[in-house]
Amino acid sequence: MYDTRDRAVQGTPDGQSRTIRHEKHPRDNKPDQQSESSRNFVSESRFGFWFLGTQTWEQHVVEAALDDLARLIETPRAAYPVVLDAGCGQGKAFRVLSEKFKPRQLIGVDADAHGLKYAHRTALSGKLPVTLVQGDCA
After folding, report:
1. Neighbours of 72 (CB within 10 A)
2. pLDDT value at residue 92
3. Cα separation of 122 and 57, whole Å?
């Protein structure tokens, strides 16, 4: 049901290849069948897109927020089966999510195809196994 393109990621720390998938649900190609939230999607401004890709964003917002999230978990685990990054944007949280929560599967979902291209690059450059899905979370 999904149009999936797989790309192997070479040279991961354990020497194994990983696969990053970009999945697009067929519904996303048909504007008349999109959800209300998809029709209301507003893309990021150029300045906003740039800022969300900076070290300032990653360190002072993403890392701080995920530190807070980790503290809120009453019974933390050594690893989690699945972690979802809803609204993953450029994937700036992938590294921190992987380090803090050690998911067996990390999924990034975003409505913006342009941002997902950067998220894909982020995952590849960080050698992070991530499944990317274009769509909304509705």
Report:
1. 7
2. 93
3. 15
| Start-to-end CA span in the chain (Å) | 18
Question: Does the domain at residues 3-28+46-134 carry the CATH identifier 3.40.1190.10?
Answer: no
Please, what is the Cα angle at 88 between 6 and 60, to 5 degrees? 135
The rounded distance, in Å, linking the Cα atoms of 25 and 137 is 12
Digitized pLDDT (tens) for each residue of the chain, 138 residues in all: 233 344 444 434 454 444 455 555 544 444 444 445 456 666 778 888 888 888 888 888 999 999 999 999 999 999 999 999 999 999 999 999 999 999 999 999 999 999 999 999 999 999 999 999 999 887
Place of tokens 């048909």: 30
Beta-carbon contacts of residue 40 (< 8 Å; ≥ 6 apart): none
CB–CB of 131/97 below 8 Å? no
* Domain positions in the chain: 3-28+46-134
List for the chain the helix, strand, coil content (%; round to 5).
Answer: 40, 20, 40
